[in-house]
Amino acid sequence: MKVELEKSFPLPAPAEAAWALLQDVEAVAGCMPGARITERVDATHYKGTVTVKLGPASMAFRGEVEVKELDATARALRLAGRGMDSTGTSGATMDLHARVEAIDAASCRLVGRSEVSVSGKAATFGGRLMQGVAEQVLQQFVANFAQRLPVVPVGAAGDGAGAPVPPPQRELNGLALAWAMLRDWLRQLFGTRRA
Amino acid sequence: MGDMSELQAREDQLQGMGVSLLRKEDARFIRGQGSYVDDIKLPGMLFGALVRSPYAHARIKGIDKSKALACPGVVAVLTADDLKPVKLHWMPTLGGDVQAVLADQKVCFQLQEVAMVLASDRYAAADGAALVEVDYEELPAIVDPKKSMAADAPVIREDIAEKKDVGHGPRTHPNHIFTWEAGNQAAADAAFAGAAVTVRQEILNPRVHPCPLETCGCVASFSKATGNLTVYLTSQAPHIVRTVLAMLSGIPESKIRVVGGDIGGGFGNKVPVYPGYVVAIVASIVTGVPVKWIESRIDNISTTGFARDYHGIGELAADADGRIKGLRFTALADHGAFNSHVSATKFPAGLFSICTGSYAIPNAYCRVDAVYTNKAPGGVAYRCSLRVTEAVYLIERMIDVLAQKLGIDKAEIRRRNFVQKEQFPYTTSLGWTLDSGDYVPALEKVLKAVDYEGLRREQAEKRAKGELMGIGIATFTEIVGAGPTKACDILGIGLFDSCEIRVHPTGGVIARLGTMSQGQGHATTYAQIIATELGLPASDIVVEEGDTDKAPYGAGTWGSRSTPVAGAAAAKAARKIKDKARQIAAHLLEVGEGDLEWEVDRFTVKGNPGQAKTMKELCMAAHTGNLPEGMEQGLNAVSYYDPPNLTYPFGAYVCVVDVDRFTGEVKVRRFYALDDCGTRINPMIIEGQIHGGLTEAFAVALGQQIPFDENGNHLGNSLMDYFLPTAVETPRWETDHTVTPSPHHPLGAKGVAESPHVGGIPCISNAVIDAFAHLGVTHMDMPHSAWRVWQQCHALGIDRH
Amino acid sequence: MANKHVVSFTLNGKEVDVAVEPRELLIHTLRERLLHTGPHIGCETSHCGACTVDLDGMSVKSCTMLTVQCEGASMVTIEGLEQGGVLHALQQAFHEHHGLQCGYCTPGMITRAYRLLQENPNPSEEEIRYWISGNLCRCTGYQNIVKAVQAAAQKLAAAQPA
């Protein structure tokens, strides 16, 4: 069960600052809701966990992240992750290409292309929800990422195009996620189209 | 000689053959006192929970049991390494292949068994199973059987990669299992070359699952003190399992006891030997206490014997009048990761060559190519009579395709092709000798009952208004009752069956047979056979099956074989007893045996009706000292019956459907089923079987499938998704019958329980497709769910005003 | 030892007490502690209804009920339908109309039908089919089950004082 996402998000910070943050794998993991780096094996290999809560029940994934490519000139990197949940019934892999594009001196764009593949119970029962969930998770990630960037003077924020940056989220809360998805879906049904 | 009413009264008292006798087994079930395997509780019993792979294809780099072993209540964790010392990490399958009991270095299908956690109760076992850590390296999976034999396809079965043959002939690729063919390809090709018209259609029979309400499970109990192994098991074939266990474990077969108690539905799902059983047995041997393993519903749908997954191509060649001159049917068979389903050595594709159906087809060729994929193992199951569902679906679909091509009415084209009554016994061009049949009156009776002409008129009117109404016909011939030991065996064991009868001095009878009921009512029907044969009331006849310590050897109940084989054995054993009783009667009445006549329940002297001995009296007499010279006491007999042929029940079904062109929803308006199973033992039980088989056919045709994504993940393996009809959508079934006895069966009976499934599926499918026939549609693959039927409506542009 | 709670309820007219962990399902308590193996387990997604019991006047799927929720409840299972050696009209009717084959769905099915006839003593065929749609059967195709429920309804109605 594969999900492919291509997204770009405007960020209110200079490209260099965003790129510096992007290379800090532990900080980036910290922006992913529910995720934590637990061990740095070497410069390009890390171990970590992701915890998802669904009401009283929670699911813990444990896995490895590898920085496969790093291009400082292009400000691009490629991360590969793979993990399994603690009960051994679901597995996931991720291949992420991310880069920072400068817009002007005070703003830039975070562009990401990811392919996430899920196996086992998560695929059988969660497969239907995956696209929506992935989009929500990415939105939360970007919000957290933006929050960690150095503060920029008011008024210098981006051109306002795109979705407003949502408030930061630390925990991956399944029910909140489901509500966010429902809200978005309803918005799509009744909202006006944007160019 | 009694008058007719007195004779009738005596016959009524027997409640023998032909009576709708209420079932003897009901008494415990209606009180909730059945004894199913999960009801069994033995002192010290442990519970086993399996750890299963989330990946369809992966290497196992390591297994860490430490956290699981530290969990409260957990006693042990078994992996393949623990089974290696006793060489039980692999086991032979009923299909001549081998299967991993616990995954040895790699897994080949999602949810394959990797380890078993043993604990004091099921909750602790589940806790432990969640703590076993398995390190997997995922491999690319093959899900599409058409890709199994590609040059660059990943090798699934590395364990047999070097083997050129896995029991059924030469292999051409590591993922190839066998190629089997029957008939005369050259003659068929010639018929096609010279034919006035030919039709060709690709036809999928999708993967489905029998899903009996009770899942599979066992309680294994090995006694260190006696060396005896007892296994309570959901098995349709307890004796075969006992023999396989003896071969596997090295425990002498005389020290193994398999007990089939009450089984909550089988439908072919409970024939194979599953890894869970073997691990539970090893666990019991290792721990010295009983071990219970019961699978979950998701485990059942995901890992146990599925059915079908035949990707077929049907071709018929005919003259301008629709008389079929040639048939070519081929199928790519997806067997999953192991060839585990029951198959007779000579028939790895089961009885697929019955695909000439009820028709006299002079030239025929069929071929099945079987391959491995990264899916659960299986293929033969679900009331299929050993691939007969696949065969009959093909021929009944193709004859409709031919009818549409030629513009011939779908009932008429069948009439033109039927094997005629005078031609029986009829040997088909694929080698089966159909024992008896009378297809024309069966079809006519059904067409009359539904007013076929009226229905076609109504259909024409509806079509003119843009409404979709379909009429489906199926005139099928089944092949059941495996079977003659020269042709039919499992792992070399012939498919005979048996009945042992003991008669008591006061007239009671106990009969034990080698079959195994899972709801078919054997305790009642076998008693009825013996009641008529022996002239003793059915209420006095106790029938037992399933305990291999007590019952004579048999191959179990599947493929509708109980009545044709064990029923025959019951009649034969009873007749041996009757012969002995006749001798005793002659001796007591001081006449010659030839002077005696049998009359319902007694022997009378010809011409002197006052002189008689009832069977009841003879029961006592057989235990006294007043017997013919040299005769032993007792009135007992056993018969092992090797049938001379299989039996060929047949039927004519009509189905009327209305399809909503906006939503794709299919409603079955009417279903009329006429079955001919030869002599009918208990009409009430037959009707119940027809209702059940038709309901399962309805499920298959309209909604069941086991889908996978490209990585081998199951996408519908729980009852949230898998369609099991409820009382609301299940149609009302109308049943009817004709009687054409089997000439070679002692009772003329043929077996019937799978016919409604074999015939029901193409009948319903034909009806749905017939609804679109006027729009040029020749075939639609099952399941005909609303979503899929709507897609057809949408493609035709008829789903809008 | 995990925290166990003592739960007391009435089962088929008798008082019972069990000590269970909060997470224990009622079906397991009934089958394994109280040795009432009439209700069966057929799935783990609460679809099949083989576990149906009658609790405080309602049909309940005991696989979706925690035993700790049953404090003080009044529970009836298939084992409680026969009274004084006399079968309930439903049990008799299932037998007379061949409403069972393998018997696995039967306890849940009869227990559900029992509640139906308590609420609606004269149900139509549609109503019967709707009421038992939460109880799956693989063997009978439901046709004879419907007949059995209709027959039982008639018998019970006839037995009522005018």
Strand content of chain B: 15-25%
Number of beta strands of chain B: 34
Overall number of domains of chain B: 3
Estimated helix fraction of chain B = 25-40%
Structure class of chain B = alpha+beta
CATH superfamily of the largest domain in chain B: Aldehyde oxidase/xanthine dehydrogenase, molybdopterin binding domain
Average pLDDT taken over every residue of chain B: 96
| CATH H-level superfamily of the largest domain in chain C | Beta-grasp domain
- Through-space gap between termini of chain B: 76 Å
Describe it:
The complex is a heterotrimer of chains A (195), B (801) and C (162). Chain A is α+β, with helices and mostly antiparallel strands. Chain A is 30% helix and 43% strand. In chain A, helix 4 crosses helix 5. The two termini of chain A are 31 Å apart. Chain B is built from 19 helices and 34 strands. Chain B has a seven-stranded mixed β-sheet, sandwiched between helices. Chain B has three domains: 176 residues, Aldehyde Oxidoreductase, domain 4, CATH 3.30.365.10; 182 residues, Aldehyde oxidase/xanthine dehydrogenase, a/b hammerhead (Aldehyde Oxidoreductase, domain 3); 329 residues, Aldehyde oxidase/xanthine dehydrogenase, molybdopterin binding domain (Aldehyde Oxidoreductase, domain 4, 2-Layer Sandwich), CATH 3.30.365. The model of chain B has no long low-confidence stretch (mean pLDDT 96). By secondary structure, chain C is of the alpha+beta class. Chain C folds into two domains: 76 residues, Beta-grasp domain (Ubiquitin-like (UB roll)); 69 residues, Orthogonal Bundle (DNA polymerase, domain 1), CATH 1.10.150.120. A five-stranded mixed β-sheet of chain C has the order 2-1-5-3-4, with helices on both faces. In chain C, strand 3 and strand 4 form a beta hairpin. The termini of chain C are far apart.
